[in-house]
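Record 1 of the preview.
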Amino acid sequence: MLPYRILSWLTEVYPFAALAFYIGLAMFTFAVCFLIPALAIVILMFSIFFLVPAVAFFRVLKMIEAWLARNQISRHRCPCCGEELQGAEEVDCLVCGIAWDPQGTKVTA
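->
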């Protein structure tokens, strides 16, 4: 339950943190481009090529989060709060009010 909560928080925060990193990097590059143009080009190349591993890391985090959720759902436990899920086919938690699909992702109403 705790590893799922940590991964859930991380997958919610990660896109915004990556965006803030890229905005900060762009502002730093703009400030440096007049002083050391070669460094600005290197930073630009780094930021373009770093985007692929950043997106791949995010997808791996989402896959691990879904795997942990499926593991808890198969035990008839809510991945978020750890309470017992009601019914055999139900994947709705009555305590925290979150609905789950069988693949382990949250269902929004």
